[in-house]
């Protein structure tokens, strides 16, 4: 099987769903002629035409508003935000309207909002956000963030087929750096299922997105010292797969929750609290959170490197837990 | 002040208990919670811990005697006055003796953890009586009847870690620490001896034996026993066991057949509440909770520890609960609450090779599942003869409440559940 990049896998998944279901269409800024800021939608305009690959004015609120309206009329929109940071502009219609629509009057909104998230590329404070925690607090909204090309394709297809709104976070650091074998035939990766990326007995690291790779790098280093790390890649951030997390904690009894968004009020807080509540008697040490600093994302490469969790920090945290 | 030691009430329906053995003599010093005597009751045999620390000054009931509950059986007096008059300039509680070396090295252990690990890594890590451990360690200690303070800690600031307690469970204390409560000596059952003049010898039944006799006859008299036998293919369960046992062993559990059977029985009970019920006159009493009893053979007897709210446990939880109850049943460490309120029972006559059994219902339940021996047998699969691991499952049920169709649906549910086992394993 040929290696496919994370970015190409998302494009394939989107194109396959558009080809198999006429209701699926793409909408966003510069996604047609230009092929998208990161070229995820390149080629789709020629293949599917301007009615199904719609370029919009620079207004995130207008994109999501139009998408929700079309979903009410039976379409299955896939809206691109050039940088996921700007999803904040759509906070009201996503959280108050789309997420509650099924609850309020039984009208599901089969909407996917996708866009590049995350740092590590000197994007600075407006182009590096990891906004999952803002939306984790919203019942009715699913959140997905793949870490591999295989999952990126399988999850975008599952998200498009889902009858409710899904926030699909694409880590921009992974777009062209990650590639793996992606099948040609139709498949989905079901929403709500985490996966054990690497089994181990000593410490569990619960993470997702680009941090999955950072955790695996740390696990490789630690393996040389006979410390076996179990790495869980959440893949879906809402709803969370607590079963997989708690099973792992029951085995290793020590856990680190690792994410790239800022620490305070982050998804790690939620997961650590749930582990303490539901897995207390399996814990041989307090759950540890590793996350970015509580500041905006710095532009400076040196500062950003200090801001984001690093392999060294993970190794140090694991060493502490092993000794604890 | 002297403390009276009374015959405890081991369950709400129990009126009396027999003292089997005194574990301490008059004049012995005893610690609080140290096993003081062994009793035998209708429901359970147990070691009774001392209610106070001091000296055993009086034993009022001899071994073998039966007394009503709450009777005073012994008295614990204060330690002799010499000890009491000892000057006590040290403000620390006396239980902190063991850790005094550690204390010198780290007078404020919480705020100022010592950097030299050697200073605190000996003789437990009690701090004002509290031992640093973790929720996991405390649970394991509870399950194995171990005092955490007996385990030497190797973690930060002398914390007792998972590794420490697992090693302790496996190998026992490394240093000359007090013997753990679990290490009770078993009294061997003497074979009856005959003299030249008599062809028979009379030996009094133990209390447990008498009660088993009573219960079994009463059950036969009460319930209209019928038995239904199903053949079950354990191929899938065996495969799952082999694939996952290592993982279970790594987390200190063992994946035997019983948790699988328990899991599907629980599902079947949930699907068919009439089997999780009892009869009271002309009323059917349905039970909300699924409390699963598992029969454990003991020397000269049998006990049925109960997993309360068994439907709330996953496979790992069930396998731990089963192993824990069985080992504590054999060590006579079950509490009275742990053998009560069962709503269904599984028994395992196949352990020694029986193909199947026809078990008697454990009253007031209305059904009991017997598990026969698991053996490779030739069976017909798709018109070909195949070799499969097969066991016979027997349901003994009370025809007053359960008809054959219902019983067979119930066992059919179990058969399907085992042959197509689907619950999460890890």
How does this model look, in words?
- The complex is a heterodimer of chains A (324) and B (426).
- With 324 residues, chain A is of the alpha/beta class.
- Chain A folds into two domains: 3-181, 3-Layer(aba) Sandwich (Rossmann fold), CATH 3.40.50; 195-323, Rossmann fold.
- Chain A contains eleven helices and 14 strands.
- Chain A has helices at 6-20, 44-48, 60-72, 91-105, 132-136, 149-161, 210-223, 242-252, 267-279, 301-307, 311-323, and strands spanning 3-5, 24-28, 53-55, 76-80, 112-117, 142-144, 166-171, 179-181, 195-198, 203-207, 229-233, 236-238, 255-262, 288-292.
- In chain A, the strands form three sheets. A seven-stranded mixed sheet of chain A has the order 3-2-4-5-7-6-12, sandwiched between helices. A five-stranded mixed sheet of chain A has the order 9-11-10-13-14, with helices on both faces. Chain A has a two-stranded antiparallel sheet with strand order 1-8.
- In chain A, helix 4 links the parallel strand 4 (76-80) and strand 5.
- Chain A is globular and about 60 Å long.
- The mean pLDDT of chain A is 97.
- In chain B, strands 11, 14, 17, 18, 19, 20 and 21 form a seven-stranded mixed sheet that branches. In chain B, strands 1-8-6-3 form a four-stranded antiparallel sheet, with no helix packed on it.
- Chain B contains nine helices and 21 strands.
- The longest helix of chain B has 16 residues, at 207-222.
- Chain B has helices spanning 81-85, 100-105, 135-144, 162-171, 207-222, 235-250, 257-271, 315-330, 404-419; strands spanning 3-6, 16-22, 29-30, 35-40, 45-49, 54-59, 66-68, 72-77, 126-127, 130-131, 225-233, 277-280, 283-286, 292-294, 296-298, 301-303, 306-307, 344-347, 367-371, 375-381, 384-398.
- Residues 81-128 and 174-188 of chain B have low confidence and may be disordered.
- Chain B has 426 residues and is an alpha+beta fold.
